[in-house]
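Tutorial, part two.
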Amino acid sequence: MYTLFESLDKRYKEELSAYAGRISGGVHGFSEDGVLSYEEAIIVQMVPDALRPTSCSALSLWGDKTQSGKPITLRVLEWSLGSENQLGFVNAVTHFKNGDKSFTSIGMLGLLDIISAINDDGVFVAILDVGSISQMPFVSEGKKCYTFDIRHALEMYKNAKDVGSYLVENSGDYTFCHNLIITDENNSYCAENCVKEVSDAGKGFSILRDENTSIMNGISWDNKDSLCVVNSYAAKGNQDSFAGNESNIVRWAKYNKLVSEKDKFSVTDVKNLITGEKVNQYDVVNIHSSGTVDLIIVDYETGKIQVAFTGTEGVIDKPDFIDVGTYYRNEE
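Running the prediction step on this input gives:
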C-alpha cells in the first residue's frame, strides 16, 4: 500500500491523505471493527492495482451500427458484491469539478481513483481485468497505480486517442496486465496494457486496439463499426486468455451473435441486449451475470450517461437505468 501510495503524483497523495485522515478520525490499522481507518481508506483506492478476481466486459457501436451514427458505449462492471450484497450500499456517481480537468466517476462512494469515468470532453475509460496467464509474481516496487494514471489522462487529454496512447506508453510500469475500454464521440479503442515483466518474457505486448486491428486465431468478430472487450487481450499474437477460458470464449461469442442480429442499435436496443438473459443461470456463462455491479451506457448523440446499479437486493434481470446527466461541463 505504501509503495503504491508513494508512486502517486503529489496532488493525488495530498488529496488522498487528507481524505483518509478526515474520514478515519485518526483511527489507524486494519481491524474488522466497522470503522474506516486511515490505512483502510487508502488501500480501498488500490484494489484494482493489488487484487485480481473480477470479470467485466464492454461494447462500443457506431456508424452504420447505430441509428444516430454516433457511438454508444456499454460497460459492464463485475466484482464480488459481498456476502450480503454490501457493494449495493455504496454505489456512487461523483462529479470532480476542477475547471477544464473536470470528470465524472461512476463507481463506489469514497473512491478517488478510476473504475469507470468520463471527462467533460466525452472521453470514457473503464477498467477490465486480464492478468498474466504465466502466473508471474506480483511486483509493486517501482510500479504505479494505473487507476490513478487513468485519472491523470482524463484530466490532461481531450480525446480517446491521446488518453489511450498515454496509458499504453506507461503500461510497463503498472502492477497487472489489464484492458481499458476508451471511447469518445469519434473513436473507440481497447488499450491492451501489458506490464514490463510479461512483455520482457515475450508473453505479451501493449497495443491500442481498434476495429482494424487483426485479432488472434480462434476467435472471430463479424461486425464492422463495433468493438468488443472481455477479460483477455484480443490482438493477434498477444497473450491469449481465451484458450481454455470458457467465460471469455462464451461472452465474446454471445456479443458477436447479438450485435450481428440487428442492423442498427438505439440506446434502448443496447439496454435490451445486455439485459436479455436470466441472471441466475448458474450452469450458463452470462454477459449479464449475478456478479454485475453496474451497467453504464454513454450515448454520444445526446451526451447522456445512464447507469443501472445493483442494489442490496442483488442483481435483477431488468434493472432500472438512471439518467445521471451529460458529460458536458457545466459552465456556471
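Residues 14 and 185 are 33 Å apart (CA to CA). In part three we will examine how such features are distributed along the chain.
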